[in-house]
Amino acid sequence: MVSQEKVTRLILKVLKDLIDTFPESEQFVPNEKTVLFGQGATIDSLTLVSFVVDLEALLTEEFTQDISLTDDRAMTRAKSPFDTVLNLAEYILEIVDPALIKSNA
Q: Phi first, then psi: what are they for 14, rounded to 5°?
């Protein structure tokens, strides 16, 4: 079974890798409460797009299924799954098909 902790670690890994490419003065340490989108966001919209693409690739590899984070399910929600790292982890758990996950997930 995939845990929220594992999904959160994967999100934070991708985010940290991206942040490491920022100028030193713009780098920060992400956590579960890091705001990704909207008021108080720690990254700009172009960086968010790169983050989503990188995260989808990692999740697709980890869970051996195609993962799309920007489909109609995500875009039509009253609350964006991209508000915070924690919200995104919860959304990913909703859309991952547990029957298709590798046993080491």
A: -65, -45
